[in-house]
Amino acid sequence: MARLPRIDLPDIPQHIVQRGNNRLPCFLDDGDRLRYLHLLHEALHATGCQLHAYVLMDNHVHLLIDLR
């Protein structure tokens, strides 16, 4: 089934969830988490997006981002 188009409301942060396949871990140790945060920082800097909050769980990630 096709997804509905994303609703893009200016100045409204987007809640983004990234999950591991079959509930498998996304991160195996703190080094993985630090690398993810480093790559996230680089991506935010390159795109001009603003991160308001994040949560790194073992098998998923929550991001609250302004997409600019």
Strand content: 25-35%
Radius of gyration: 13 Å
Report the order of strands and helices. EHEE
Shape: flat
Uncertain spans: none
Helical amount: 25-40%
Domain Transposase IS200-like: 14-67
GO molecular function: DNA binding; transposase activity
InterPro entries: Transposase_17, Transposase_17_sf
Protein name: Transposase IS200-like domain-containing protein
Please summarize what this structure is:
The protein is 26% helix and 29% strand.
How does the SSE layout of this entry go?
Layout: E1 14-19, H1 30-47, E2 50-56, E3 60-66
Antiparallel strand pairs: 1-3, 2-3
Structural notes for this entry:
This protein is of the alpha+beta class and 68 residues long. It has one domain (14-66). It contains one helix and three strands, in the order βαββ. The protein has a three-stranded antiparallel beta sheet with strand order 1-3-2, with no helix packed on it. It is flat, with a radius of gyration of 13 Å. It holds the Pfam family Y1_Tnp. InterPro entries: Transposase_17, Transposase_17_sf.
